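#lab-general

N.A. 3:47 PM
ok so I finally got the sequence cleaned up, no stray characters, all 324 residues accounted for. can someone with queue access submit it? mine expired

B.Y. 3:52 PM
send it over

N.A. 3:53 PM
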Amino acid sequence: MNPVDIIKAPIIDELEEFERRFKYSMKSKVPLLDRITHYIIKRKGKQLRPMFVFLSASASGKVSDSTYTAATLIELLHTATLVHDDVVDDANERRGFFSINALWKNKVAVLVGDYLLSQGLLMAIDRDEFQLLKVVSTAVKEMSEGELLQMEKTRTLNYDETIYFEIIRQKTAALITACCKSGALSAGANPEQVQLMAEFGESVGIAFQIKDDLFDYGAGKNIGKPTGIDIQERKTTLPLIYALNKVSSSDRKRMVNIVKNHNQNFQKVAEVIEMVKASGGIEYAADKMKEYADRSLEILAKLPESEARLSLETLVKYTVDREK
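B.Y. 4:20 PM
back already:
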């Protein structure tokens, strides 16, 4: 049995019911829209976000109707942001499938994203789930701010570790924080426990993003050769930031020049990757990732023992051990 199946075990029935509700939440009387939403459902990923919602609810109390609303709301808003991201990035693929904009063009993709966003908002309002709506809307706001902050710093090539952590806290961790916080809220947890789950989500979300950074340098069991995609896109990842603050002044200038002006030259990008490795950047980032993962496990240890807590612990380990 693979790790994801083990993690899902305590909430397998809830995830099946969530799938049914999520599918229903996207229905439309417009045939084109219905065809596109059916395509979106068909290419779903590992269901990590709903897993965080349901496991956080189970670990904090009991899964309720509000839990299904929280998971559906998060998945609708997250899917909307992905559809819009593909337009912004001019991406033709996502998870090995053609993106919506590749198949139906940008205008349709933007409108589909808007539709999913409005469906999520209306669902929360119809069910008087204003607390959940506030949590999830705050996460989407932070994700947008994180993306814009990254774009701004990419232009100026700002290599400040503090700014890096602020970007990933907003871009990646904010949504996982919302999953865990809304899960606890939906289960009727007290304010202290809700805050505890929010802190857990933030820590595991940051560990998750650092792991993604490491993939770009081939730092995984079956990753093979480094991709250097982040360098090509001039993204300031943690291994690169560490290296730039450790190497000599002349090496730093060379690395910055490559990232700024030669980021499409595979040979030069490979040179930067080697310099990052030689400086200890991979080890440093891996240690930071472990630090945040350990912090997540320390938070979970404060919860009562349960199958759901055990699954969340396994989910943390999966986050840092995963191979893609």
